[in-house]
């Protein structure tokens, strides 16, 4: 084990404290905003603790976060769209990623570059084509349209991330499975796929977060309040505040805190599995 000098250790700890402070401060500020019942207009001063403790804003957003739509409807929309987008992006993405990583075919590099190009183009460039296509299919105003839109934007990252994971898996493992009589599909399911699960899980989480937090494109495909997501509700609340709305800013803080809970729970559930598989990378952890 390499010894670290005392001075370097002190500077490292101080740097970590400063980084932790800048990470925790916005979170604490949002929590303070959520439980401060004295805020009617926009906050004009920073406080570490609420001036007047109140739980009414939290109870309000848990009842009707957007117009007359109840909270569980908005939460259900967000989870359905986010999990759906992540599942579609992974299901379609890992097949393409494996093909680009293992097979050689004409226009392979062109295909990879085209996928990368779609990732760097601004989303607004796809709004008109998607609007026309989904209108023709008569699904533009459904949650399915949101799932497909968010999956399409997440898929380039998923493909490149999972392609890199498949590339680092030694081909000798697959060749050994072939010698033992396993076919292509069985080799992929029992050998390649378990080793690539960490990257697939990371790609799925990123796709989930992209869909869970996106709101700008969503308004193009939503014309009913019943299809609004949590991210759209926060955006609508911010727009209402800056346009002279009467809702207290504590509602915004409460809804932001509530919206972050599913993400925190998801990471707490999967963090141990992800870390173990990233460290060991074995087909069978036992």
Task: Give a description of the structure.
- The chain is mostly helical and 286 residues long.
- The chain has a domain at 65-247: MetI-like fold, CATH 1.10.3720.10.
- Helices cover 70% and strands 0% of the residues.
- α1 (6-34) crosses α10 (249-280), α4 (108-120) crosses α6 and α8 packs antiparallel against α10 (249-280).
- The longest helix has 32 residues, at 71-102.
- Mean pLDDT is 82; it is low at 280-286.
CATH topology of the domain at 65-247: MetI-like fold
Proportion of beta-strand residues: under 5%
- The radius of gyration is 23 Å
Give the structural class.
mainly alpha
Terminal Cα span:
28 Å
The total count of helices amounts to: 10
Sketch the major β-sheet: none
Order of helices and strands: HHHHHHHHHH
Query: What is the annotated CATH architecture of the domain at 65-247?
Result: Orthogonal Bundle
* Number of E-type strands: 0
Shape: globular
CATH superfamily of the domain at 65-247: MetI-like
